[in-house]
Design goal:
Layout lengths: L7 E6 L2 E6 L11 H48 L1 H4 L7 H24 L7 E3 L6 H9 L6 E5 L2 H13 L2 H6 E5 L2 H6 L5 E6 L6 H10 E11 L2 H4 L4 H8 L9 H18 L3 E11 L2 E10 L7 H4 E7 L5 E5 L1 E6 L2 E6 L16 E8 L6 H13 L7 H12 L9 E2 H8 L6 H10 L4 E2 L7 E4 L3 H14 L10 H6 L18 H4 L28 H4 L1 H21 L5 H20 L1
Parallel strand pairs: 3-4, 3-6, 4-5, 6-7
Antiparallel strand pairs: 1-2, 7-9, 8-9, 10-11, 10-14, 12-13, 15-17, 16-17
């Protein structure tokens, strides 16, 4: 079947080009260029790291095998040495040493060289490929990559993917293959078969996690996106619990909590198969969260999972939050004993404002980034600036992540603290200086420009705000108001607001952009493929796009009626549905 290019729009991103039908048949979102660029950057770092780990493993094996060979040679020489046995077998000692020692050394060298050839290029699985743009970019732009398998259970998407593979030439056809199948079935039938598994569904990835953690090879990379942010951020807590096994809380840190809920869910699925995860990068961008984790198998290491999870207590009055670990460990002689966490970490009422607590979680409270990886990814991105269409955005995100405190879960909002006390907000530099002068650490957050990560307890934070209000008086409030209760107490710590050199991050000091605006209007989620575009999609697509699409449909419908009055029923069904939808909207408006 020949392709009429007049019916398609050619979209170029990076080094790949795809044909997109003018009708909404296959899902494509331009805003996901940030997602794809970040994934390519991480994939390049993973391939480099994988090679380094393999070389280190071979060197270790070579050293250990060399010691074993030397031991075997020495024992053999003692047994066969004629001088040691008091016998002469007609060979000199020099001849004997050459045959017994040089042979094993040469054999070890040959074994080492053959083992070096065992590292095959990584196999990549894109579980939900749609147009195949992501798989094509992986194949064309990532050096050293192996086979890329693109899956989808929508026939139109698979057809589009196969068409785009051919459109991109020989390199794509030799590396990328597309299959019409259920991704869950394919992953379950290929356990530990893929070095990289990419999950980027439309909505929640929860139904794919169980099969995905089984399909990743040991030490492999699992890349997972979740776009159901309303659920993860607390709009429907019961839905989040049913999908991810954690209850979300509404707070300024809700987007970081979404990241940690997703990580805790992946860890839970991995533990069922004696596996565990190690996050290397976790980002919140645009309208979604994206995590990059490595998956390992170890029944003993899996026991540490409760130490990485925590429940969150959040005050309903002042938004103070506290974390309680699910488990704890107790060293005993040469072993470790695992015990349940000790709690509660908070009383029934908040010690600051007297209100009750909401409890959420469990969430991943261990580090969500590997700073060594982040540094490596950022340097790789900067060295290949021209190969990333969204270079500015991903560089800004990675720069901010590189300066985050890795061991501090969640963050405070300066505006939220000020809103509780009904006072003017101190500048971020002054507040950070007060925290640093109190001998605590502080950093920003890539999730929120106003977010402040610190290991200072909430008592110190409220003391700093009390001292600020003393210097910047406010109008009296109701005695029952949480802010009034907090300010009624005298500060036990006198804050020092003198400017500290560490109050600005390195990026701020160098005036490096960290939070960039969207490049164009309506930069966000798009409607599902196959959905009829109507006036209710104005917020997603914009007035011009919706009006243009509706006007184009009306013209096409009029031309079809003039040229083919007796149209086949099956072909006319979509148009009838569109007309009915438009009429329904007109009647309700």
């Amino acid at each position: 079947m020949e392709t009429d290019l007049n019916d398609y729009t050619i979209i170029k991103e990076g080094e790949a080009e795809v044909l997109m039908h003018k009708k909404n048949q296959v899902f494509f979102n331009k805003a996901q260029v940030n997602n794809r660029d970040m994934s390519i950057a991480v994939l390049r770092a993973y391939i480099s790291k994988r090679k380094q780990e393999h070389e280190a493993m071979l060197s270790k094996r070579a050293r250990s095998s060399g010691k074993v060979l030397e031991k075997d040679v020495s024992e053999t020489s003692k047994e066969e040495n004629p001088t040691a046995n008091g016998e002469d077998n007609g060979k000199t000692n020099g001849e004997h040493e050459v045959t017994t020692q040089d042979g094993p050394k040469e054999a070890a060298k040959t074994a080492y060289e053959s083992a070096r050839r065992e590292l095959k290029p990584p196999r990549v699985l894109e579980a939900l490929s749609a147009s195949g743009l992501r798989a094509l970019r992986y194949a064309r732009e990532v050096e050293g990559i192996g086979q890329v398998v693109a899956l989808d259970n929508d026939p139109a998407s698979v057809e589009a993917c196969q068409r785009n593979i051919k459109f991109n030439g020989l390199m794509s056809t030799s590396k990328v293959e597309s299959h019409l199948t259920d991704a869950r079935v394919h992953m379950l039938s290929h356990p530990k078969d893929f070095d990289v598994v990419d999950l980027d569904p439309y909505g929640a990835p929860s139904i794919f996690l169980d099969s995905a953690v089984q399909s990743v090879a040991d030490g492999g990379l699992l890349m997972c996106t979740a776009t159901d942010m309303a659920v993860l951020c607390g709009a429907n807590g019961e839905v989040c619990y049913s999908k991810y096994g954690s209850y979300p809380l509404k707070g300024k840190y809700c987007h970081e909590m979404a990241l940690r809920i997703l990580l805790a869910s992946i860890e839970s699925h991995a533990n069922r198969y004696k596996r565990y995860i190690v996050p290397v990068l976790s980002v919140q961008m645009d309208f979604y969260v994206r995590v990059f984790v490595r998956v390992y198998t170890s029944a003993s290491a899996m026991k540490n999972t409760p130490l990485k999870l925590s429940y969150v207590y959040q005050c309903i009055g002042c938004d103070s939050f506290h974390l309680q670990s699910v488990g704890r460990s107790l060293p005993k002689n040469n072993s470790v004993r695992y015990l349940p966490g000790v709690g509660p970490v908070v009383p029934q009422d908040c010690t600051h404002c007297g209100k009750k607590y909401n409890m959420g979680g469990p969430i991943w409270s261990a580090p969500i980034h590997d700073q060594e990886w982040v540094t490596s990814i950022l340097s790789g991105v900067k060295s290949m600036k021209d190969r990333y269409p969204a270079y500015d955005r991903i560089c800004a995100v990675l720069t901010t992540i590189s300066e985050e405190l890795p061991d501090v879960p969640l963050f405070l909002s300066l505006h939220s603290l000020s809103a509780t006390l009904k006072c003017t907000s101190p500048s971020a530099a002054l507040f950070r200086s007060a925290v640093i002068n109190a001998k605590y650490r502080v950093s920003g957050s890539h999730v929120n420009p106003l977010g402040i990560k610190t290991d200072a307890p909430m008592e110190i934070i409220w003391d700093i705000m009390r001292c600020w209000v003393k210097n910047h008086p406010i109008k009296p409030q109701s005695p029952e108001h949480p802010g009034s209760v907090i300010l009624s107490k005298e500060p036990s710590h006198q804050a020092d607001f003198s400017r500290h050199v560490g109050s600005l991050s390195k990026a701020q000091a160098k005036k490096v952009a960290r939070f960039l605006p969207n490049p164009e209007k309506h930069w966000g989620p798009k409607i599902r493929a196959g959905r009829t575009i109507t006036s209710k999609h104005v917020s997603l697509l914009g007035h011009d796009a919706v009006n243009g699409h509706l006007n184009g449909n009306h013209k096409e419908a009029g031309a079809e009626e003039d040229e083919e009055p007796q149209e086949d029923i099956t072909e006319g069904e979509p148009d009838l549905k569109r007309q009915k939808t438009t009429e329904d909207i007109a009647s309700t408006s």
